[in-house]
Amino acid sequence: MPPHAPPGPASPPPAPPDPWRAAAAALLNLGGLGLGYALLRRPVLMAACWAAAGAFLFVALPADADGIPGAALAGYAVVLSAAAVHGGFAGLRTRLARPGRAPLAVLVAVLLLAVPAGGALWYEDAHDEAVEQAILGRLERADDLVATSGRQPFATAAPDYRTALEVYRDIAVRHPGSRAARKVPASLRTYYTTVGAAYGHREYCDAIAPLKYLRTVPGTMPRKQLGSLAGWPDDRLATSLYECGAEHLTAGEADWVTRFGDLLDTFPRSGAAAGVAPAVDTAVKKAEKAVGGGEPCAAVQRLRTLGTRIGDLSESAGDTGGRLAKAASRAGRSGDAGEYACGVDQYRDGDFDAAQETMERFAADHVHDRNRARAQKIAIAAEVARTVPAAGRKLPTTASGGSISVTVKNDSPDDITVLYTGPVTGSFTLRGCAGCKSYSLADTLFSGFKPCNDSGRHYPQRTVSLPTGTTYFVHKPNGGSTATPASDTARLRSGYVYTECAYSTRQLGSGT
Hints:
Elements: H1 19-30, H2 35-39, H3 43-60, H4 70-91, H5 102-112, H6 114-149, H7 154-174, H8 179-195, H9 197-200, H10 204-214, H11 223-226, H12 232-251, H13 256-266, H14 271-274, H15 276-290, H16 296-314, H17 321-337, H18 339-348, H19 352-365, H20 372-387, E1 404-411, E2 416-421, E3 426-430, H21 441-445, E4 461-466, E5 469-477, E6 486-492, E7 498-504, E8 508-511
Parallel strand pairs: 1-7
Antiparallel strand pairs: 1-4, 2-3, 2-5, 5-6, 7-8
């Protein structure tokens, strides 16, 4: 028989199951570096654990505010769990390379778990710092946005102001313990002074809208973050409403009523509100004084406008309403009384239509006024001057009478009013002449034409006494007559008796 080769050495028998070995392998693999596989002499699986750890660290580092992606964290947790479980089962019957004693290996594994635990703690600190830096970055960008917006008009910058405020609110509410949250109060102080900068520049009208906006901020921000800023805009807004209203009141702009109305409604007990009535009184006194100046008609209009607007304001002015109502009444009375000065100014400026209308209205509305008699004279003179402009060269007086008799006869079927002005001014009415008729234009062209010359006819007439000098007459038809006024200029001298005759053609004529 052929010789047989001696049998090879037999493979070592598997180690008996040992839970300590299993625990050591599982715990070592749980550290993340596959050290359990190293003790079990399985290098390929250990390399796989290293690759998984490297990939996880590549994703996780450096630590940022977003943290580790959830998928990566979950995936790596599955890998660690699988390596620990597999290492535990493999370690039941596989001897360890070293340390040879399983309990010692378990102790080493437990000690080595401090490495990933410490790494986790370090990462948590790094992540927290990254979050802090991200929040501080948001705060800094919001602060920069406020600074940039402060160089723009409020209406343009308002959306950016709201954006910045939302950032401050988010930091204060969602990250109350952060370093950025501790800086929010300082940022808000800068925010308030920037938004309300127009007030600091004494641009009171421009300051109103931003200050009103700032009063809405406490509705969106935690009170603790605002502190005293919650009431910061109030006094400033009250002052701005007053100063803007007073400025526009002086300038004659209409919106002063709105400004003062807002002030009295919003801050009725403020010092600024207490200044409204005195400011209105001052404006009325100034307009009253202007009645005696170079533009009395403008002053009268100003007083009447003031009276109306002050009256509107007084209706919703609370405790101040009574004083404002008195100022409104005074402005109205002063405006009415100032009509006389306005009419005089219109007459002197040659605006006879306006002067007549103004003086007639004044005389009708002020029956007991000391200037009423002269106002009536000026109204007459203005009406004469509308037909004979030369009659308006001098302002009429209240003088009456004279040494020269002038008789005016009416050779017209129409009732007429005779107006005259010169050294004295007056008017009277003559009824129509019974049996008289209008002359044709051809009649007036004959050289022998003499109206008021029918000795058998009784002409309505009136005689007035006038002083020497030039007197301007206008004969004006009454009622619905379509005849137009006619005029005559009489230069009266002593020793003569004068007769005026009124007659009508297509137009009303006159003669001496």
